[in-house]
Amino acid sequence: MGIVIFSGVKLSHFLILILIFSLIFIISWAFVLKDYQKQRVVSFLNPQIDEMGISWNINQSKIAIGSGGLLGKGIGKGSQSQYGFLPEAQTDFIFSTIAEETGL
User: Fold this and answer.
1) What is the CB neighbour count within 10 angstroms for residue 34?
2) What's the CA gap between 25 and 29, in Å, rounded?
3) pLDDT for 63-88, tens place per residue?
4) Which residues cross the membrane (predicted)?
5) pTM reported for the whole predicted model
6) What is the distance between the alpha carbons of residues 77 and 101, in angstroms, rounded to a whole number?
7) CA 91 – CA 83 distance, rounded (Å)
8) Which run of H or E residues covers position 36?
9) Which of 21, 24, 53, 88 sits at 20 to 30 Å (Cα–Cα) from 75?
């Protein structure tokens, strides 16, 4: 936001753009997004809301990264990734898997 202001864009144009995007967000939230999509957004912003439900994946990902520590557990020895706590560990959660097994 600071770069846009310092680049010479008029403040009035910038504020109008913010207003337009705010209106689009409000209208989308109220009329376009379905309930499960709203839950995903809320879960992304606050993962502690439903730790055993919609926030399960992100919490397990954090546990995997933390349990790997600095040096990791070893290739193929990560508990979160090998025992199925991370769904799709080889694709969607590859960063968490690598961090758990090889460390940070």
Assistant:
1) 8
2) 6
3) 999 999 999 999 999 999 888 888 88
4) 12-33
5) 0.66
6) 6
7) 16
8) helix 35-45
9) 53
Which amino acid would we find at residue 65?
I
| Tokens encoding 53 | 């439900």
Q: How far is CA 79 from CA 9, 56, 58, 65, 76, in A?
A: 51, 16, 16, 11, 9
Q: Residue holding tokens 């690598």? A: 98
Query: Which backbone phi and psi does 15 adopt, to 5 degrees?
Result: -65, -35
39-56 pLDDT, tens digit per residue, is 989 988 888 888 888 888
**Where exactly are the structural domains of the chain?**
2-45, 56-102
Q: How far out from the chain centre does Cα 43 lie?
A: 9
Do residues 5 and 14 lie in contact, with contact meaning Cβ atoms separated by under 8 Å?
yes
Question: Using an 8 Å Cβ cutoff, are 51 and 62 in contact?
Answer: no
